[in-house]
Amino acid sequence: MNKENWNPGTLLDVSGYYWKTCALHTGVKLDIFTAIGSNDLSCDEINEKLKVDKRGLSMLLNALAAMELLVKKDESYSNTSPALTFLSKESKKYVGFMILHHHHLMESWHKMDKAIIEGKPTRMRSSFSDEERRESFLMGMFNIGMAIAPDLSKKLDLSGCKRLLDFGGGPGTYAIHFCLANPGLTASVYDLEATRPFAEKTIRQFNVSDRVDFISGNYTEEEFTCPDRFDAAWLSHILHGEGPDQAGDIIGKAVSALKPGSKIFIHDFILNDSKDSPLFPALFSLNMYLGTPNGKSYSETEISNMLTAHGVKNIKRLSFEGPTQSGILSGITS
């Protein structure tokens, strides 16, 4: 938003926007959109499935209709096309897990003043949290990956690559789609042992168990060792969880697993060098401040310097921009 657009109306709109956020989160958490499905249902019919307070449900349904996620006709409610596509669990394009992950982050954002006064996180990292939060985080990563990987896999240059390392790859979404788009490619997903069930379930879902495997380990605390080195590495949304020194170490560990002349790709929320844009990476840096001791969004120059420090050459910014302003840097190992 441009500075000249700020006025009491726009300020109050931003201040109260969390009302819409909470309505969406509650709709997803109660699974209202799945309950409605492709039907036209009354509040009573929806409540037969949900068994919640009818008065509150009626108000929520009306609010979701006002937000144009539901359509209200007479006394019945139906999903809009986007709601049916992205908010019903019956859809392969469901993004509800990421929305639930955002829901779990809200309390820490509410305490941002406390975090800034005390200089420490106000929540535990999602990957080390309880089962519900870890599932929403990992499956949220799957949601985001599914919004990006199928298209990106057709454009990312993996020509000549035979073995890819998805470093900190979570459920393995990118490794899977890179293999689907490149018939000669195999991949290993490297992440915490607690991630294995989610990754292996996803790998089976796409019928690539013969080409994608899982290697357990902690990339922040352990050295990565593998008898056969890789010729491509993909690091997606892992640097921002760490401070500069550890982020650089992570890149070093990935590079050490690659043969000379291999390709390395860094996918993250990349700031410009003044760090005041794009908007989402700037806000995401605050999110990392609230949830980690040293994590943040990095600028293109900062990431480039980390790569250069570990002998990576021919570093360039790809033309790709993700739906939340993520970007990709690529390079070649020496």
From TrEMBL:
It comes from the Bacteria. Residues 128-311 form the O-methyltransferase C-terminal domain. The keyword Methyltransferase applies. Residues 14-88 form the O-methyltransferase dimerisation domain. GO terms for molecular function: O-methyltransferase activity; protein dimerization activity. The keyword Transmembrane does not apply. GO terms for biological process: methylation. Keywords: Methyltransferase, S-adenosyl-L-methionine, Transferase. InterPro entries: COMT-like (IPR016461), COMT_C (IPR001077), COMT_dimerisation (IPR012967), SAM-dependent_MTases_sf (IPR029063), WH-like_DNA-bd_sf (IPR036388), WH_DNA-bd_sf (IPR036390). The active site is at H240 (proton acceptor). This is O-methyltransferase, family II.
